[in-house]
Amino acid sequence: MEFQYENSYEIKDKITASSIAILPVGAVEAHGPHLPLGTDNLLAERVATSVAEQVEAFVLPTLPYGQVWSLRNFPGSINVSNESLISIVVDIGESLYRQGFRTFVMVNGHLGNQPALKNAARVLFTSCPDMKVFYFFYPGMKQAAKEVRETDSAHATYFHACEIETSYMLYLAPEYVDMEKAIKDIPHIPEDADVTPTPWEAFTKSAVLGDATLATKEKGKYIIDIAIRNIVDMLRNNGQK
Amino acid sequence: MEFQYENSYEIKDKITASSIAILPVGAVEAHGPHLPLGTDNLLAERVATSVAEQVEAFVLPTLPYGQVWSLRNFPGSINVSNESLISIVVDIGESLYRQGFRTFVMVNGHLGNQPALKNAARVLFTSCPDMKVFYFFYPGMKQAAKEVRETDSAHATYFHACEIETSYMLYLAPEYVDMEKAIKDIPHIPEDADVTPTPWEAFTKSAVLGDATLATKEKGKYIIDIAIRNIVDMLRNNGQK
Amino acid sequence: MEFQYENSYEIKDKITASSIAILPVGAVEAHGPHLPLGTDNLLAERVATSVAEQVEAFVLPTLPYGQVWSLRNFPGSINVSNESLISIVVDIGESLYRQGFRTFVMVNGHLGNQPALKNAARVLFTSCPDMKVFYFFYPGMKQAAKEVRETDSAHATYFHACEIETSYMLYLAPEYVDMEKAIKDIPHIPEDADVTPTPWEAFTKSAVLGDATLATKEKGKYIIDIAIRNIVDMLRNNGQK
Amino acid sequence: MEFQYENSYEIKDKITASSIAILPVGAVEAHGPHLPLGTDNLLAERVATSVAEQVEAFVLPTLPYGQVWSLRNFPGSINVSNESLISIVVDIGESLYRQGFRTFVMVNGHLGNQPALKNAARVLFTSCPDMKVFYFFYPGMKQAAKEVRETDSAHATYFHACEIETSYMLYLAPEYVDMEKAIKDIPHIPEDADVTPTPWEAFTKSAVLGDATLATKEKGKYIIDIAIRNIVDMLRNNGQK
Amino acid sequence: MEFQYENSYEIKDKITASSIAILPVGAVEAHGPHLPLGTDNLLAERVATSVAEQVEAFVLPTLPYGQVWSLRNFPGSINVSNESLISIVVDIGESLYRQGFRTFVMVNGHLGNQPALKNAARVLFTSCPDMKVFYFFYPGMKQAAKEVRETDSAHATYFHACEIETSYMLYLAPEYVDMEKAIKDIPHIPEDADVTPTPWEAFTKSAVLGDATLATKEKGKYIIDIAIRNIVDMLRNNGQK
Amino acid sequence: MEFQYENSYEIKDKITASSIAILPVGAVEAHGPHLPLGTDNLLAERVATSVAEQVEAFVLPTLPYGQVWSLRNFPGSINVSNESLISIVVDIGESLYRQGFRTFVMVNGHLGNQPALKNAARVLFTSCPDMKVFYFFYPGMKQAAKEVRETDSAHATYFHACEIETSYMLYLAPEYVDMEKAIKDIPHIPEDADVTPTPWEAFTKSAVLGDATLATKEKGKYIIDIAIRNIVDMLRNNGQK
Q1: Which family does this protein fall into (chains A, B, C, D, E, F) (predicted)?
Q2: Would you say the C-alpha torsion F2, F8, F10, F12 has a positive or negative sign?
């Protein structure tokens, strides 16, 4: 159910304390030659939609701008600050709370947003005391990706426009993938990239962190289905606490 | 051209000092029984798309949350503060500037956003000195609406879910309008509503400010085409200044 | 009654829930060769005084600095930001509320202050729930001015140092007007001045938007008396809501 | 020279790098039964005017609201925060700098404003590097007051509505003093009032910190003339550094 | 070299572009019955001292307050916000930059500080363009801990007052450890603790996340020595980039 | 009792409404050739420890960074803004309040911190209504110093690295004083240094404001013992109010 296509007269009864509002959060960011700038928006939206169907939730309009500090100097990237992101997400959350929602779920498609979304969730923890707030970023994907990937990961937590993320797109939004342009570009990420500010132009020209040519719809389906199942399970368990 | 479906490799050459980035800005807000909550998003997007075709601009992903203070207590409304809106729009504008854009156009579908967008534009005027920033809200519509409307306007500047806005939707997004539910509800707006904070529940239950049953696609086309032409003209003239 | 000439011992009994505090808000801003920089302060003060006499209100000391972004580069203009203005007005309003006032009226003499005053009023709407806050800028003047003006208006909402505002001064503060220096200077305001940041030096050297030589005390009296009557009526009606 | 009565055409030439802008800063605050709420505004204005005459400076409109935390619960007091005060003073100072002033003088009539004015001056020290900013509060008054006072001071740095401040008013603004209502009320100020937040209602009902009945115009003249001379001397010396 | 025991006359020559300033950052936080509240301060200080000896750096006074949101309701915890932490660290970094340092190293002893320190480092990346800023939290410890631990970790990234952290203390600050009070308390951390705000009182009473009785100095030495070596290596490599 | 060496299990019972938390606040700042940069930290800590022993209070870890605007350009100084200082002190105070403390004492060793600490105390006055907050800076020292000093003070309120402060160090932290390097350097402080921002490099190269060679442990003991006694007395009296 897309929230913005509902009308004001009918929405009132549909929003109950047990109903769930899902906000897809993405970004506009360089994703190499074969994936679109809006990759994270597309992924977040489609994961959100799939979750919503299973738990009867409302999907809110996607918040399509994220914190892309690391790639902000790459062509096409649009960066918003942590402060802006926290501020607008808190406003949205507080509005949902006043509208009667007691479960607010952020389905995030961009790793760089996680600290801001976590911070916003903590603000809402205090201002909306009986609303449960989630900030999901492909829960369980780390283990699942390890099982299907054919190349080593370039970094412990980053994946970007690579075998993995391209597989997500082949599963969820294949119409926006151009596999003919997919490349293999395994960067050497400096060991201090996790402990000092390191714009990615320091180690990659393509913004592809791996071998995108190995991406398949099946790999994407394997990981994404696990992530979606994890989200759905956590939302269902939430009702019983 | 939808910006987010471009890729990072090709976008670099496409962005030139003469190219234009258009940001549709809308809102999620009560619009009576016959129009969806996302009416302002739909309108902003489609006006933006039409403008973009005529001036060869990029359309950015819609910023779908706006300042809806007046209707924030109506079912389905999601309100964000002026501060949040200004902050994220300034971030987006500054990113576009660094990406090489020298014309940033906000096509706004929600009147309540105008003060924040104007404020953001002024911030950008200083921080991005040679970028021209526009914040359009149906330029010329006031006169054009006067020419086609069959009922008096309930307020000097507000129009909402009424003969006028419903006509816009019948022209631009008819698939989201349910004319069978359209109502006539002409409120008596207190004369001090412009000079003291007045949530709209003080004078309307429906959030419809007029007679929506009189809406027609033709009226919408008449006004919207004028607004679009005005936008296009101003953007074209901009090049010659 | 000028609030600041009262003393602390007697003011306590004089402030009751039915009493009204009026804050004149003006600006220091270029007003052409014939009007002083403090024109908006003088007008706001004198309108406030007249209103106060009719509704038995207290007039607070004038807040004499306003947001004059558009004319900030003209000789003599002193600009304060929206943020500063909102912040100090909210402080003043909250103090008045704690002092026992339940009606706080801003009589504003400078159009550029309206967005900030409206924003402040909304903040106070939440923090001082049973205090009514008004932000008046010559209510009803648009229609009244149309009736008396001999030249067309240079802009739909601006009037500045022109036939109209000079007439206000001739009525309310003639000792500060030098009609021998009054000029006629009808600028061509670019059509996009309302939709893109446009410092006024782009279209005028004088800061006079019209024909000041046509100003008369009678025109001023006609419009100002209507505005004052409208303010008084709204304040009186307020008691009955 | 009152700045706000100048006009934009002539002010340009009058503002030179050697000219001085003086901002009187006061407060609206309880001052006992015999002095008006606006005592600090009156004093600041008149000291400023006297200084301006001697150094050929412009006097700006008074900023009539100050930080009166200690007396904020007394009838008639209007309190603004340090943050608001700093913000608006910085805006004013930066505007004066852009207008060409290189000396910005705050003549402050309210002790509680000093920390905010000092803070603002330091901000301007960085943002307006070659503008000299002063924040005067009766320089030299401590010693001078000691020489003329007939009663001991109730506190090392406070004086308020007492023998001293009432004398200032008898000298500078006698028309606002009602000596028939003047009282003697020497409070016992707790020794920890300087080291823990202590609203004045903890130790005084009158807000008079001493024996106002001993005030004379002569005492006021003695101290104020010294303060003014000190200000004038420092401004004159400034030119030679 | 402890920075604060240097004097102003000699420090000038000692600070060169190649010299390094190390800021230990810790927290005051519940650490079970056997470890002190200041555990993270002690660890950060002693790791910093060890690093400093190897790279000839200055150790600054410890910033002893951290973001302990998760444990803020436990006895003895003192929590500061991300905003406060970012603000003071940025101030410190900018001062060091003006003093001539070009390498600023945060040695952090508390996981909860990492997002704020990373954020501060990014601010400094822009404001101090040629200063390298590091934010270390036991680099390499994850793998090293896996090699020595006898019990499974209770959580993928948390370790707290457990076999691991107690071992650190036995190695670096044994005089503050009371092993007689050490307990085993392996909590069941809910699977959604990483995706929704979860104060730790939801799953532990002791704040011990494991079996502290298994801690040994040797385990601590093994991991800490690796972490220190990693820090030293990265600082040394930094010189060659 | 050093708070950070307590453990979470035992601290709960030790914190009662009558117990006191003392926060030493210092600075890292140039103190001439004979005193260390951390002089204010050492003094604050040791005064705090002495007070704590007499009133059975907890001493918190020292906040070792202060607002040193005036000396920020001297070698070794590290400056933090008023805003940062206020923010972190308020956080600490609010945490202490939630932990059960009802008396929060700041023992400050650096004059430049007083405005920020006072401001923070006022914020806490509102947010923690029944917690008493003190901000001490050597209470009574002015009179006591006058009695023992052999040279005139260079300034009415400043003392720095001079006969007085060096005496404090000889009494409280003699191991950090190098009297062989002590100098006499009595600056001429411009008379306007109190009324316009004046970095100390304008009048001193050494940062020593007097004759440090005259410092003795006895002078230090005389003044410090008075200051400590005053603090202790005020804390004891506090219980009876």
Answers
A1: Belongs to the creatininase superfamily.
A2: positive
Distance, CA of D71 to CA of D112 (rounded, Å): 10
Taking alpha carbons only, the member of A198, A21, A217 closest to residue A100 is A21
Taking contacts as CB-CB distances below 8 angstroms, the residues of chain B near C125 are 197
Instruction: With residue B238 as reference, give the H or E element that holds it.
Output: helix B217-238
Chain F residue nearest residue D107, CA to CA: F195
The tokens for A111 are 């790793």
How many CB atoms neighbour CB A147 within 10 A?
A: 10
Among candidates C82, C122, C136 on the partner chain, residue whose Cβ is nearest the Cβ of B195: C136
**Amino acid identity of D45?**
E
pLDDT band for position C18 (cuts 50, 70, 90): confident
Closest by Cβ to D80, choosing from C83, C88, C176 = C88
Tokens of A127: 């201002």
DSSP letters for A79-127: B--HHHHHHHHHHHHHHHHHHT-SEEEEEE--GGGHHHHHHHHHHHHHH
CA angle E67, E70, E72 (to 5 degrees): 70
- The residues that bridge with C134 in the sheet, in sequence order, are C105
Distance CA C207, CA C187 (A): 9
Q: F91 to chain E, minimum CA–CA distance in Å?
A: 5
Give the per-residue pLDDT at B241: 43
For residue C132, the cross-strand partners are: C103
Give pLDDT, residue B239: 63
pLDDT band at E17 (very low <50, low <70, confident <90, very high): low
C-alpha closest to that of A49 among A59, A61, A38: A59
CB contact under 8 A, A28 and B4: yes
Q: How crowded is residue A157: how many other Cβ atoms within 10 Å of its Cβ? A: 9
Nearest to D85 by CA among D113, D107, D61: D113
Strand order in the sheet with E103-108: E58-59, E20-25, E103-108, E132-136
Query: What does DSSP say about strands E132-136 and D184-185: parallel, antiparallel, or unpaired?
Result: unpaired
Regarding chains D and F, contact by 3 or more CB pairs under 8 A is answered as yes
pLDDT tens across D121-149, in order?
Answer: 999 999 999 999 999 999 999 999 999 99
- F70 DSSP assignment: G
Which is nearest to B26 in space by CA: B104, B93, B101, B85?
A: B85
3-state class of C128 per DSSP? coil
Chain mean pLDDT for chain B: 95
pTM over the 0.95 mark: yes
**Distance separating alpha carbons of residues D112 and F191, to the nearest angstrom:** 22
Mention every residue, 6+ apart, whose C-beta is less than 8 A from residue B208. Answer: B32, B33, B160, B161, B162, B183, B184, B185
Distance of alpha carbon D112 from the chain centroid = 9
Query: Which of A227, A235, A234, A239 is closest to A44 using CA atoms?
Result: A227
Report residue F241's pLDDT band, with 50, 70 and 90 as the boundaries.
very low
Q: What is the spatial distance between Cα D186 and Cα D211, in angstroms, rounded to a whole number?
A: 7
Give the integer Cα–Cα distance in Å for F41 and F48.
10
At residue F135, φ and ψ (nearest 5 deg) are: -130, 95
Alpha-helix runs per DSSP H in chain C? 8-14, 39-55, 82-99, 114-127, 141-148, 163-172, 217-238
Q: Does D140 contact chain C (CB < 8 Å)?
A: no
Q: Sort D179 into a burial class: Cβ within 10 Å, 0-12 / 13-18 / 19+.
A: middle
Element (DSSP H or E) covering residue E47: helix E39-55
Q: If we measure between CA atoms, which residue out of D206, D167, D170 comes closest to residue D186? A: D206
pLDDT tens, position by position, A178-207: 999 999 999 999 999 999 999 999 999 999
* SS3 label, residue C58: strand
D34 three-state secondary structure: coil
DSSP letters of E114-167? HHHHHHHHHHHHHHSTT-EEEEES-TTHHHHHHHH-SS--SSSS---SSHHHHH
Q: What is the mean pLDDT of residues F3-12?
A: 96
